[in-house]
Design a protein that fits this description.
This protein is an alpha+beta fold. It has a 15-stranded antiparallel sheet that branches. 28% of the residues are buried. It has a single domain, classed as monomeric porin ompg (Porin), CATH 2.40.160. The longest helix is centred in the first third of the chain and has 23 residues.
Length: 332
């Protein structure tokens, strides 16, 4: 529990500082290049293409862009039953593009979940419960083969669910699962419109049933659809909705679908010389299995590492040197 609280406080602190930072930039411009001419994220005359607001936003909102990124996503799923408990899932999900030929890229998206799972405790336990399990969940790597040139951005490849959970009873499925994954999107003007979908089936792992006939770990047949719409505004801000719809095809009627609705706001900006993408979103579940959270909050902090040409690297180094010189002059 202490580890969970520490994680929540650190994540909330980082996101809070990043959200407040734009308003505070004039107070400490001497410590960051954000205020220097030609380095603002939201300008079109930025000498480094990676710091250009329009280009960077399009890349950061494209799940299969040729952009190295490290999203750190905090998910709070409130009011799980029994007891009205909160589940917490911290996803660390780096995206790494690899060039495999003249015409194709391989995009590796690897999700590592760190989960706090409240343990269901039956009555007459008091409503306020403190029992839960904290640890690593099942990792989810996906590999997309993406054409380098296409009118519609798309990618296809396999998705895996690895049985890496530190507590199989509560934090993982206990199965090796795999299946196809597909993503497609377009980016007309200020918009990004698209979807990502996959379906995985278990192929190995814990037995489905115990020797006495009771369920051990049920077989997996799960569907995921995430559609996303982003509208980009001025100064790096954008509106976003990206609900994750899931279906457990082996569940009983009425417990198959989870269908959320909602959205939030985000911003592409820089912390020092580091481009980042920050979002805050809220979702309510219009349909969900019995006892599962009816609503949740998603906070995300993404480190962006655009590929720079040698000339762009030179310009960036020159600006860093200029900043260091200004700091030295202020100390004298």
């Amino acid at each position: 529990m202490k580890n969970l609280l520490t994680t929540i406080l650190i994540t909330a602190g980082v996101i809070g500082i990043a959200l407040i930072l734009p308003a505070a930039v004039p107070l400490f411009a001497q410590d960051t290049p954000v205020g220097l001419p030609g380095t603002e994220v939201a300008t079109q005359d930025t000498p480094v293409a990676a710091a250009n607001s329009e280009e960077l936003r399009k890349q950061s909102q494209n799940p299969v862009a040729s952009l190295i990124s490290v999203p750190i996503q905090e998910n709070f799923n409130f009011n799980n039953q029994p007891g009205g408990r909160t589940q917490n899932v911290l996803n660390i999900q780096p995206v790494i593009p690899l060039s495999v030929s003249k015409n194709w890229n391989l995009i590796v998206r690897w999700i590592t979940p760190i989960v706090y799972q409240p343990i269901p405790v039956q009555p007459p336990t008091p409503a306020v419960q403190t029992t839960g399990v904290y640890g690593l969940g099942d990792m989810n790597p996906t590999f997309f083969l993406v054409p380098k040139k296409s009118k519609i951005i798309w990618g296809i490849g396999p998705s895996f669910v690895l049985p890496t959970a530190t507590n199989t009873t509560y934090l993982g499925q206990g199965k090796l699962s795999m299946g196809p994954s597909f993503v497609a999107l377009v980016q007309p003007g200020p918009w990004t419109l698209g979807f990502l979908a996959n379906n995985v089936w278990s192929v190995a792992g814990h037995a489905n049933f115990n020797t006495d006939g009771t369920v051990n770990k049920p077989p997996v047949n799960q569907f995921l659809l995430q559609w996303f719409v982003n509208y980009n505004m001025k100064k790096g801000w954008y509106l976003t909705t990206s609900p994750i719809i899931t279906a457990n095809w082996r569940a009983n009627d009425g417990n198959v679908w989870t269908v959320p609705f909602g959205g939030g706001v985000g911003r592409i900006m820089k912390l020092g010389f580091q481009p980042v993408n920050i979002t805050a979103q809220f979702y309510g579940n219009a349909v969900h299995p019995a006892g599962v959270s009816p609503w949740g909050m998603r906070l995300q902090f993404v480190l962006l590492f655009p590929k720079l040409t040698r000339e762009q690297q030179k310009v960036l180094l020159e600006k860093k040197l200029k900043q260091m010189q200004q700091e030295d002059q202020q100390k004298q």
